[in-house]
Specification:
single chain; mainly alpha; 6 helices
Length: about 150
């Protein structure tokens, strides 16, 4: 049973990445464009350039989109994870210690989900994998060496 599950791990990880990226990107789009309930469910948007809301929403949209596509997954996940750690410690934790008390559960979950993707990579179905296969198929040329002279 474990061997069969291990073979499916890249596919499960790819689906996990797609769902997490989509949810994060939609959260950013809601805040930036007022779609799907808008910022904080108010139907409105975050005012352009305001700190930290607008920048967080931009990271959510861009980082979530990149993770969703599996393009630059590790870097996008690292930045997204950091933005959620910032959100938790600077926005939520001042209200109470535990995420259940301060409304920070989404920030904590996104932070740890993205941190996992930093270490695991994109899994299956990602553009990172497609480009890696294409590069391997065409073969990479070694950089030309120039002789060293004294």
């Amino acid at each position: 049973m474990s061997a069969r599950l291990n073979r499916t791990q890249p596919y499960a990880l790819g689906l996990f990445r797609i769902v997490v990226g989509l949810l994060f990107a939609v959260h950013g789009a809601a805040s930036l464009f007022g779609v799907l309930g808008g910022a904080a469910g108010t139907g409105g948007t975050v005012e352009a350039g305001t700190w930290p809301g607008w920048y967080a929403a931009a990271i959510q949209l861009a980082g979530g989109g990149l993770v969703l596509l599996g393009l630059g997954t590790r870097a996008a996940a690292f930045i997204s994870s950091g933005s959620m750690a910032y959100a938790y410690f600077n926005v939520h934790q001042e209200h109470a210690l535990w995420p259940i008390q301060n409304g920070g559960e989404p920030s904590v979950m996104f932070c740890w989900a993205f941190l996992l993707l930093v270490f695991t990579g994109s899994g299956a179905f990602g553009l990172d994998q497609l480009f890696a296969r294409r590069t391997a198929t065409h073969g990479e040329r070694a950089p030309e060496q120039t002789p060293v002279t004294a």
